[in-house]
Amino acid sequence: MTLQRISRILGTAGEHDAVVPPTMLYNEGWMLRIVLDWFSRQTAFHHDLAFASGAGWYTEGLLPSPFLPRSRGDRLAESHTHADGVVGHFKVGQTGEGDVSLADGAKQFLVLEAKMFSRLSRGVTHAREYNQAARNVACMAEILRLKGVRPEEMDSFGFHVLAPKSQLDGEPSFMEFLDKDHIRQTVAARVGQYGNAVKRLSDWYSEWFLPAIDKAVVKPLSWEGILDVIASADKEAGMEFRDFYEQ
Predict the structure, then answer these.
(1) Burial letters 176-193, b for 16+ CB under 10 A, else e
(2) How does pLDDT run across 122-133, given as a tens digit for each residue?
(3) Percent of the chain at pLDDT above 90?
(4) Long-range contacts of 87-93 (CB under 8 A, 24+ apart)
(5) Does the model's pTM come out above 0.85?
(6) Digit-coded pLDDT (tens) for 147-186
(7) 210-237: buried (b, 16+ CB within 10 Å) or exposed (e) per residue?
């Protein structure tokens, strides 16, 4: 009954009798959820968002950073990274509420960043040039390290930014931040902040991060392109999703 009440309240979003703002429902988070729910129900489907056998999805998970605090007051540290979405073979909440970790025998792990006319962030408090793309890929490498899974063992491993086509075409920072060489240089600079004080980070960079970025598929995906793919396979869902997107 309570869930029905919540559904009814959300259903007023954008209507004349709305009791919540439209963005409570019509936002990139819910756009991502309905898209992932659809892809999760497809079999033998070929797409960057295709689910491997046994894969699942989760939104608003926490990715472990290789730059977590070494001690209280660590001025170079950062917290976990919030992932808009993850797809693949993983577990949630094994080390803390919302924490994402690889499952045994994992072969797929995708991290997704959903945008709706907002940019990738350019940095964190203690590293102004450590942008959102580099941060996510670094966390992906750390997830592999924590599980002891080599990047080459993964069949599907990638980071994708989902955004409107007009934004991807018109905002140069997307292509800049998603360039693999740029990501390598950005993470190297982040490691370099620690100098020789933390040797494990330079080892991590060479032994885990570089193989991970080499393996990863890093690319943007437009919402419009995704909706076209869905519509070609499922006309009804394609129409419904397009209407939601336009809202």
Answers:
(1) ebbeeeebbebbeebbee
(2) 877 767 889 999
(3) 72
(4) 87/36, 87/39, 87/49, 87/51, 87/55, 87/56, 87/57, 87/112, 88/52, 88/55, 88/56, 88/156, 89/52, 89/54, 89/55, 89/56, 90/56, 90/58, 92/58, 92/61
(5) yes
(6) 999 999 999 999 999 999 999 998 888 999 999 999 999 9
(7) bebbebbebebbbbeebbebbbeeeeeb
